[in-house]
Design brief:
Layout: E1 3-7, E2 10-14, H1 20-24, E3 25-30, H2 36-55, H3 58-61, H4 68-89, E4 94-100, E5 105-111, E6 117-124, E7 128-134, E8 143-149, E9 156-161, H5 163-203
Antiparallel strand pairs: 1-2, 2-3, 3-4, 4-5, 5-6, 7-8, 8-9
Helix pairs in contact: 2-4
């Protein structure tokens, strides 16, 4: 279970264990409220898929005329179409962003109406070249946080929301990533200094 705090269109996702986990994992997802159209589309397409699967039994239950081959082909086509629609509907239309600073990973997920994720894109933080806010071109539209990832030709939309909250999230992530980079550089410097100290100690051993 995760705890949620809603701010405008975005929800912060706090790890259930809290403590140190909360210090190293930061997650934000789009709340369901502003995306009711997507929820309705998912519900309609999912229901249509289930009806198609059930409709595969129609030639047998209703004793419709036709050859055995035509009935079997109709049933197989109905089942295949229904499963495709169901899988498409439940892939998710809302977005979730999770940054794991301990693992140095960033994850982009798609959430369905049940809050479950079936599609996830994972990247190492060093692969993220930049992040920027794409502001709406017309009033009433949503801003979006985009990531440019090494090896991906186009930018990836991580989250959508009101412009102030997307800009605030962008500032926080930039600050956290900058702090992480500075800590990593400091750690490398300490390791190099320690290695130089060990080399000096071997070249000039302390005399008894």
């Amino acid at each position: 279970m995760n705890a949620h705090a809603t701010f405008g269109i975005l929800e912060t996702v706090v790890p259930a264990k809290g403590g140190k986990a909360g210090e190293h994992v930061f997650g934000v997802r789009e709340s369901a409220g502003p995306f009711q159209r997507e929820v309705w589309i998912e519900t309609i397409v999912r229901s249509a898929g289930m009806l198609m699967v059930l409709g595969a039994l129609a030639p047998w239950l209703l004793s419709l005329e036709g050859t055995m081959h035509s009935k079997v082909m109709f049933s197989l086509l109905a089942v295949a179409t229904g499963l495709f629609l169901f899988a498409f509907a439940t892939r998710g239309f809302r977005r979730e962003l999770e940054v794991n600073f301990a693992e140095q990973m960033i994850r982009l997920r798609s959430l369905n109406s049940y809050g479950r994720s079936r599609i996830s894109k994972d990247f190492h933080l060093v692969e993220v070249q930049s992040m920027f806010v794409r502001r709406p071109s017309t009033p009433g539209e949503l801003a979006a946080l985009h990531l440019r990832v090494r090896g991906v030709p186009t930018s990836l939309c991580a989250l959508r929301g009101e412009t102030p909250e997307i800009e605030g999230l962008h500032r926080r992530l930039c600050q956290d990533l900058r702090r992480l980079t500075e800590n990593a550089r400091a750690e490398v410097y300490r390791e190099k200094a320690s290695a130089r100290g060990r080399r000096v100690a071997r070249v000039h051993p302390t005399e008894a």
